[in-house]
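Aim 2 progress update. The chain analyzed this quarter is reproduced below.
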Amino acid sequence: MATGLSIQLTRQIGEHLVTAELGRRKVIATPFAGNVPEIDILAFANGISVPIQVKAINGTSWQFDVRSFLDVALTEKGQKVNGLNQGLNRRIICIFVAVGKTLGEDTFYIFQLGWLQDYFHCNYEGRQLPKNIKSFHCAIWKRNLEQHMEKWRVIEHEFKLLPSNPALKRDAGAEARHPLTTR
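Predicted structure tokens:
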């Protein structure tokens, strides 16, 4: 089980990996030291400022409270999904990081928060008895995010950047995960 320290270190590593990668792509980025709701990094390029949310893991899935994404009511028999959480900013850019054991083994998944909300809306049915109906836990696995792997064009589009330097381009099917790594 992950300790508070290991969770904090994973979060820190993820935010700094994203900040460095954005810098390589000519985007000025700074992580926040504290926990600012919905924003882990503020990024700037071409006169455009964009908040970015980063979620980093050492394992295989990202864990959430489904009520962040959906309007879920608790009934006597179980949970009832009433629709989307209307308070969610669907345009926030998310960069999920699967932190590797060594430099260059990290994988980035880039998308807008609205996509994740839609994913849970399609896949979360609400718990029914005899399951613990008071649990609002949900998760998404790496395999569910494959279409967003290394999708840096989301960043390029948001900041109106030219396509990435070929030396920085990462192809989801490529062997190398980092331009400095050789295998």
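The radius of gyration is 18 Å. Residues 171-183 have pLDDT under 50 and may be disordered. These observations will guide the mutagenesis experiments scheduled for the next reporting period.
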